[in-house]
Amino acid sequence: MSRSQAFADQAQLTAERLHTPPGGGRFAITRLALGLFLVDQERHRIAIGSDKREHVPLKAGEGWILPAGATGICEYDEALSFLRLEVPENLLADVGFEHHSDFRPVVGAFDPLLAQLAHQTVSIAGHASQLYRETMQLALAAHLAQILAPAPPRLVGIDDKRLRRTLDYIHDNLTANLSLEGMAAEAAMSRFHFARAFTRALGRSPLQYVIQERMELAKLFLKTTRLPISSVAARVGYEDVSRFGQHFRRHAGTTPAAFRAD
């Protein structure tokens, strides 16, 4: 692996579902990480920063959140299924979480919304669009920061010129694989601050706005051309025709074919 590839991997949030046999062992956390148990572990034992193990039974839906640099031992007597997510520093910085290595480890009960976001983030890994994945990851990081550092991050204001420039960028690139990174760069803001400012100004998230504008463009194509629905989907940024159909039905209340025939 090249140095540039290794750096790119470190800058990405990793989310996976793991199944391991009974046992466990020593661990060393390099990035802020969280684990969500999918099965009960009555004989779970853990030591953080020492070799002194404590018996901490964990049920499905419970788990741990550990800061970067944490070391210790984790042991369990039954096969374990769990979700593991590692959050990179750049994503935490985007949501204003500056002291992400300076919090007390959490072991036990999990915030319900954080658990839900963890499940969703794992389920879409490698499948959804880049914009949707980034939106979910940003939501998870923001909620994680709120839990670990309750004081809300200071928001930076956005002026109309920046917002108009970003809207022009979105409309010029509706068929492309738009990303929060690209939109935020147009506004000269971090992704988190941009998403918050955009939502406040337009009453919807960047993802919701992009979907709406794509659906409006799709309506135009359906009414004014004889392009196959698959081609219409491609022209408004969808490689997956079924996903395009789902979004169109949610937006227009009917299928693309029925809308064209109406």
Descriptive labels:
262 residues; alpha+beta; five-stranded antiparallel sheet; four-stranded antiparallel sheet; 18% strand; disordered N terminus
Distance between the termini: 55 Å
Spell the H/E element sequence: HEEEEEEEEHEHHHHHHHHH
Order of strands in the sheet with most strands: 1-8-3-6-9
Number of helices, counting only DSSP H or I runs of 4 residues or more? 11
Pairing-aware structural class of the strands and helices? alpha+beta
Q: What portion of residues belong to β-strands?
A: 15-25%
Shape annotation: elongated
Main sheet: strands, sense, barrel: 5 strands, antiparallel
Using only C-alpha atoms, the radius of gyration works out to: 22 Å
The helix content, as a percent range, equals 40-55%
Number of strands: 9
The average pLDDT score comes to: 87
As residue ranges, the low-confidence spans are 1-9, 151-157
